[in-house]
Amino acid sequence: MKMNKTIRNYSFAHRDKNTLDSVECNGIEYSIPAGIGSSYWAILKTLFSKIEQPVYYEELTSSVKEYMLDRDPDRWLRYCNKNIVTVYVKSKKTTICKPSKHWKQRIITNALTLSRNGGNSPYCLRLLENGFILKKEYDSDRKPYFIIRKVPNNTSNNG
Predict the structure, then answer these.
(1) According to the model, what pLDDT value does residue 23 have?
(2) How much is the pLDDT for 124?
(3) For the chain, where are the E strands, in sequence order?
(4) Would you say the pTM of this structure is higher than 0.70?
């Protein structure tokens, strides 16, 4: 049986700006390219509020928790108490259930996903089309952090 492969669209360029949340940074309003209430939304809301500034893991997870709790406490509790995730195993062409990681680790993993520029799921396209890129970098003590940077010479209309 031939599988019908669906190409995922990571773009938010054609979404009505009124359906997206926004955040202000240095007096400029930025649209958040993610569904309101999702973990990606809370991650990007945190990062867009600190453009070109490091956001360390603890600050990111703390801020995401605050945004998610304020938005929908029940949904946040379900996110935190998730025990099992369903994962597609490409080599076996099937799905399996695995134990879920701690909520803080899932937030870090989701932030890393938003920085991915290649492969079958280039989530960073939603940032690039708005003139930004998300990077994981390290400070002088080798402590990791995330940073949203403006892409030079970009003609986007976000910000």
Answers:
(1) 94
(2) 84
(3) 22-25, 28-31, 55-56, 84-89, 94-99, 132-138, 144-150
(4) yes
Q: Does residue 89 sit within a domain?
A: yes
Determine, yes or no, domain membership for 44: yes
Measured between alpha carbons, how far is 49 from 63 in angstroms, rounded to an integer?
Answer: 11
Q: Please say whether the beta carbons of 159 and 28 come within 8 A.
A: yes
Assess contact for 130 and 31: CB atoms under 8 A.
yes
Residue 141: pLDDT band (50, 70, 90) is: very high
Q: Which domain holds residue 100?
A: 17-150
Note whether residue 155 is domain-resident: no
Contacts 24+ apart (CB under 8 A), 92-96: 93/3
